[in-house]
Structures are given as C-alpha cells and as structure tokens.
Amino acid sequence: MALTGRTALLAALGALVVGLLLPSWTGIALVTGTVLLAVVVDLVLAAPVRSLRLGRGGDTRVRLGEPASVELTVTNPSGRPLRALIRDAWAPSAWRPGTAHAASRHTLAVPGGERRRAVTVLTPTRRGDHHAHKVTIRSLGPLGMAARQGSHLLPWTVRALPPFTSRKHLPSRLARLRELDGRTSLLTRGQGTEFDSLREYLPGDDVRSIDWRASARRHTVAVRTWRPERDRHILIVLDTGRTSAGRVGDAPRLDAALDAALLLTALATRAGDRVDLLAHDTRKRGAVVGSSPREILPAFTDAMAGLEPALNETDMRSLVSTALKMAPHRSLIVLLTGLDAAPVEDGLRPLLPLLTKRHEVVLASVADPRLDELAAGRGTLEAVYGAAAAEQTRADRRATADRLSRNNVTVLDAPPAQIAPALADTYLALKAAGRL
Amino acid sequence: MTSTVPAPAPPAAEQPTRTAPTSLAPTGRGLLRRARWYLAFLAVLLIGAVTVVALGRDREYPTIDPRSYDRDGAHAAYALLEQQGLATRLTTDPTAHPAGPDTLVLPEPDLLTPDQLRAIAAARHTRLVLIAPGPTALSALAPGIRSSEEDGGLPYAPVRPANAGCSLPEAVRAGDAETGGMLYTSGSRGEGCYPRGHGYALVRTPLDDGTRDVVVLGSGVFLQNGELTVAGNASLALGLLGSQPALTWHLPDYSVPLPKAAHPKTFGDFVPDGWHWALRQLAVAAVLAALWRGRRLGPVVSENLPVVVRASETTEGRARLYRRAKAHGRAAQALRRAAAHRLAPALGVPLRAGAPDPDALCAALADRHPEQSAGDVRALLYGPPPTDDAALLRLADDLDALERQVRNP
C-alpha cells in the first residue's frame, strides 16, 4: 500500500473545514474519516498487483558504453484497468551515472485483460553481467489517492562486453596484412614461411633465391618466392593478477589489455592464424580454445566480459605450465602482464626459458601516461621529487624490459591508447619476418 | 521380470516463461511462517509482562509517602510514630473533623482546593504541619507566614544539616537536622528556625489562643527513610509530628490539576479556538504526507564495487618518501640518468647496459656545443650530488636547458 500527495493535500484542506465549520474532535474525525474512506475505496478498486503477469525480452549483450533495451511486458488479467508506476530495478552500474532514477521508472496504463510494454534502456558502466533486481509496481486507484504496491522478480541478465574501442585500427592493419599475406611474396626464407611459387627472375631480385634446378628445366632464370606461413597458432595470455588492477587513467590496466587482445585476435584470425585465450592469476580464470574464425570474436568478448582483476599476486609457475599445456606446438605466446621489476624478476624470468625454448614470446605491458606527467614536473620541490621518482620507475621498467629482451622476448611498453595498435604492429612485423 | 514404466510427463505449460507467476507479494500462509518467531517472541513478552504485573505488588509511591519503603518514602518515620503509641491514620480526605487533639500532616498543601483549605482551617486541628506550602495554602492555614521571596529574600535554599538557631523545643532537642527547601518569614507571632538568608526553613506560629499551632516546613527531606538516621532528623520528625496523641497523614491526590494561577496572556490565547482544531487536522495531514513520502518504490539496490587503485600510486609514494628523507642525491641521480638516457640517442652515443658511457657522452656534447665548457657539462651530468633543495631544483632546470639545447640547436 502507498499513499499519494493528493491524500495529504486533501487532509490539509480539511483543516479549513475543521477550523471554520467544525472546530472539535468530531470535525477532525469527520474529515479524517472521509480521507481514509477515499483511501480504502481506492485500495479496493485499484487493479491487483499480485495477479499481474510479467515478461521480459530484449538485449542480452551490449558493448560497454552503448545502450541496451530490455523490454518489460505487463499483462493485466483482472477486469480493472491498471494505472501503474513501475520501477525496473538494476544495480547502479547498469545505468549511466545520474540517470538511474528517471530511466528505471515507467508510467504504464494497461486496460483490463490487455498487455502493454515498457522499455528500460540500460547503459552499463562496468564490464560483466548485470542482473535484474525486483520490478516494483504501484497500482493507483481511480481517485489517485492510494495505490497497491508489490514486487515481482523476473530474472534477466545483460552482459556488458568489452568495448573493443581499438577496432578503429583494424582496417589499416588489415591493409598492411594484405601487403604481406599471399599477395606479396617474399624472397627471404624464414622459420615461419612456406614455399609459394616460382616466377621469372627480374632485375633486382636476390640472386641467392634463384632456383637453378627449375631454371634448367624452363630455359629462363626462375626464382623461388616464399610467403608467410598461414595457420600459425597464437596464444594470448592475460595476467589478471594485482598488477592488472592498477588504474591507468579511468580504467584498470586489464581493460586496455583486453582491448589489445581483441585487436590482435581480429587481425590474426583474418590472417588465417588460430588464436586461443588464457586468463590466469592464482588459477585459471578463463580460456577459449579452438574457436572457428567466424565465432572467435564473440567467444573472446564473452569470456572477457566477466574477467575482473584479482587483488593477489599471479602464480607465474602455474600460468606458464598452463600456457605450455595449451600450446603444444610452436606458437606465438603473447603475455599481457605488468613490467614491475619484482614480479617479473622473481616470478616470470626464471620460467622464460621454458617458453622461449619452443615459442616466440611477446610481452606487452600497459604503461601509465601519468608517469610522463610526473616526469615533466618542474618548478616546485614536490614536482621535482615527483619527476625523480617517475624517472626512477621508468628506468626500472626499462631495465626489466632490457633483461627480458636479452631472453629473446619482444617487449612492448605502451600507454593504454597505443598498446592495441602497437601489439598489432608487432604481430605484423613478426609475421613479415617469418618468425611465427 | 519387472519393468518400471515412466510416469507420463505432465503437459507442458503453453508459455511457461510468460505465465509463470513472478509476484513476490507474500501469501497469508507465507507471512505467518515468516512472522512466527516474532509472534512467538511477542507472546512470550506479553505473558511475561502480564505475570510481572499480576505478581508484583511493587507500587510506585510519591516522595514522603508513609506507605513507601523507598529511600524517599516516609514509612520509617510513620512506623516510629506508631510505635510511640500515637493513633495514626492515613486519609485522603483532609477535611474531616478530629475527635480530639491531633496533628494533621499535609505533604502537598498546594494540591488542595480553596474549599478544602477553608474546611481544614475550620476543623481546628491542634497542630498542622505543612510541607512547602504555596501562598494560597499559607494565607488560608498559616496566617502571618509568608514566603521569603515576597519579602525580598531568597526563595529557596539547598537542604543540608543546620543548627536550629531558635528556642523551639523540638528543634533544640534535635540539634542539627537536614533542613532547607522553601524559605518563609516568621510573621509577628511566629518563631522561625533554621535561618537561611532572611528566611527560615521551619516556622511555627501559634493559632488562636496558643493552644493550636501551625508548623510550616520548607522541605520534608528529613522525614525520608533514607535520611532519617542522619543528624537529628529522626528526633525532629518525632518531635514535630508526635506532639499530639493522634496523627492524621494526608495522602495527596496527584491526579488533581494544580489550581490555575493567573498568568500573562500568550500569543496562543489570541488565536480563535477553531484554529487549534485546524492545527490538529494539519498534524493529521502531516502524518499522511510523511506516509506518502516515506514509502519507497522498491528497495535500494546494492552492488559490489571493485577496489580503485591508481597505478601511479607507488611512484607518488616514492616521491613523498624522497621528499621526507630529503634524498637529494638519489633524486638527482634519477634525473641525471634519465637526461643522459635521452641525450645519448640524440647525439648518436650508443647505450651500454641502458646507459651511455660518460666519457663518450661528454665528448659528443663538447663536439656539438663547443661554446659550453666541458667541465660544466660533466659536472652537470656526473658531478657531486646537490646538498640542498635549491641545488636540486637548479639541477633539474639546468638538465632541461641542456636537453633543449641539444634537441633544438
């Protein structure tokens, strides 16, 4: 049950009646009794809430930052018309900040025996699953003085997928890929290349690539061409430990890493490579293995939607052994982790030979632009000490990256906006060099 | 051979997801089940309360009540007087005429109506004991005695043991006694005891020909059970109340409202009576408005939020540590190393283990900028650490200037 402002207003106007006409307990009882009678009449005549039939429909998946429409169907099986105020409650992060109140409320009139639909527009601000909470319905009586109120529970989940903002870089990288892949053949032979064709020698070609045996058969000089090998295996390993929780700008490091992983996946899939995903901190958080090219991006975004940074140290030994199990043959292993000295030196570096023995390893880390801001600070003592501390941190990261490079690891350290294209470029460079 | 025949599957609902009831409104049975513990608790509470009320004879008495055994009751004094052989009597009607010589105790004379006061005066009690009477009771029963305040004295004094300071036999016998409270003047015929300021805490004044008298007490604290053993309280109580063979103790009726005293008119007195009722109706409206605003449309939804840790937090912490430790040397070293690291590629000096060779770097700098003294440049990049804050600030600016020179010659 709920009252409306009209009830209070009527009771307040009743004060005039009491004051001018009936200044006694009788007057108060008369006025209050009238108001309460109207309330009771309203409650009796309001459409029942309990017997309403509710249904849901609409979006179940949405990219983070884009609106999702969830429909709410209200069927009124009673003979009385329903005039209702409905609140479709979701967790606060399902709404754009400040719009939660207006967006969750609907005013709906459903004549008896009919059905109406209300559309709730959600704009999730956090990645992951958003679950519907209660639907609360306030059914107003014909006088508009009182309402019946009750709640229904209709489960519904909207999954907010990673936004994949770096997809704007995809067309330019695909163009570069086409230059490499098949259509332009290589004259150099590498580990990840396969024999493409023989063609006539043109001035400028490397004389070392002349195939003398074929030249003898053809009566013209033929050269062998090679192309980057297709159908290579790529394993993207996401470190979801505590280093991925640090916020760079507005979002945790993990979000930038997910973005980079998605761009690499889209690119590599077009290039004909197979991509697998592993998310790991103290234990395996998620893995996508052996998806077909058509469904790999949806599968990856789905797996990534629920990933949250864990606030504990990554178990590198377990991570490396799981990665090795998932990559039995030569693969490109892309490690998206941090470059902080301690965890890398103690955890990862002793285990690197296991990875680099058979695989090509790329370590990508999200740099913090705030460090550059700090390093540029001058003028006050505080700013200069900040600059010194930032330079120290940068030097430490550089030293760690240098040591990793000496272990045959390609190291990337780029700010969140550039990590995805940088990783894609690294992939293309490795592919062009035939190192996959 | 036995075989189990599977039961036929129930017919599937046409639209199980659409027609399934989703309401969370509790049914009567569910409500009862949910509330059963509360109801049981309430029942136990009720039974307990009823039992306590039924069994408990423990009544609350006002102060100086002869039936009360509390610290502030007066049963001890009453029982002592009874043991002395007095014909004691409790009454709720103080106007009854006495059979012989007696004492009437009025613990709350102000609660009596003017009619009752006149009747008491006419009943001719041998002794009247008034405890903290107001002006109305004083003028009716104790002519000549007035409140000390009316004569410009203190109206009130704290209760404490004091010497009698008079020749009243009961007070002299008692010695020190706890007196105080309201203060009175003695009038022309009366005798004041326990003086405080310009007033007295006890005044006895003879009536008529002197066979009857009135004793006005500022406070009855000395009669209380808890105080009776202090100083001469008991003696004073027995002396004042036990002088006659009979004692009548009035039990005041506290439910009677205090007689209305004339007071200046307030704003409320000028508002017509009808509007007082309208105000009550407005209070009803306010309650309804509170009910209207207080009803939520569904509960508040809570959510687990992730911890927010800025990635630069450790670096900023390190900066604060440098500053607190006044680590000029360490800070300068970090700045110099970064500058050298940036200068080396611009000058074409190779990096070895992340840093350029000092001699090679200085030589390259001297080549590019011969106008600068080689010693200065070397001191800037590889000199001794700065010793104070100002030197560190200067070093940072000088390094910046050098870098600018190399980048934009």
Write the layout of secondary structure elements.
The complex is a heterodimer of chains A (436) and B (409).
Chain A (H helix, E strand, L loop, with lengths): L1 E2 L1 H16 L4 H21 L7 E6 L2 E3 L4 E8 L6 E9 L9 H5 E6 L4 E8 L5 E13 L5 E8 L3 E5 L8 H11 L12 E8 L11 H7 L3 E7 L4 E7 L6 E3 L2 E2 H18 L3 E7 L3 E5 L7 H10 L10 H11 L4 E6 L4 H8 L3 H5 L3 E7 L2 H7 L5 H26 L2 E6 L1 H17 L4
Parallel strand pairs in A: 3-10, 13-16, 13-18, 18-19, 19-20
Antiparallel strand pairs in A: 1-9, 2-4, 4-7, 5-6, 5-8, 8-9, 8-10, 11-12, 14-15, 16-17
Chain B lengths: L15 H4 L8 H28 L19 H9 L3 E5 L10 E5 L7 H10 L3 E5 L3 H7 L14 E7 L6 H6 L2 E6 L8 E6 L2 E9 L4 E6 L15 H9 L4 E5 L16 H4 L2 H22 L14 E2 L2 H13 L2 H20 L3 E2 L2 E2 L1 H11 L5 H9 L6 H19 L2
Parallel strand pairs in B: 1-9, 2-3, 2-9, 3-8
Antiparallel strand pairs in B: 4-5, 6-7, 7-8, 11-12
Helix pairs in contact in B: 4-5, 11-12, 11-14, 12-13
Can you tell me about this structure?
Chain B: The chain crosses the membrane at residues 37-56. Chain B: InterPro entries: DUF4350. Chain B: Keywords: Membrane, Transmembrane, Transmembrane helix. The complex is a heterodimer of chains A (436) and B (409). Chain A has helices spanning 5-20, 25-45, 100-104, 170-180, 212-218, 253-270, 296-305, 316-326, 341-348, 352-356, 369-375, 381-406, 416-432, and strands at residues 2-3, 53-58, 61-63, 68-75, 82-90, 105-110, 115-122, 128-140, 146-153, 157-161, 193-200, 222-228, 233-239, 246-248, 251-252, 274-280, 284-288, 331-336, 360-366, 409-414. Chain A is an alpha/beta fold and 436 residues long. Chain A folds into 3 domains: 1-161, Immunoglobulin-like (Sandwich); 187-228, no CATH class; 230-432, von Willebrand factor, type A domain (Rossmann fold), CATH 3.40.50. In chain A, strands 1, 3, 5, 6, 8, 9 and 10 form a 7-stranded mixed β-sheet that branches. Chain A has a 6-stranded mixed β-sheet with strand order 17-16-13-18-19-20, with helices on both faces. The longest helix of chain A has 26 residues, at 381-406. Mean pLDDT of chain B is 83; it is low at 1-18. Chain B has a 7-stranded mixed β-sheet, with helices on one face. Helices cover 42% and strands 15% of the residues of chain B. The radius of gyration of chain B is 48 Å and the shape is elongated.
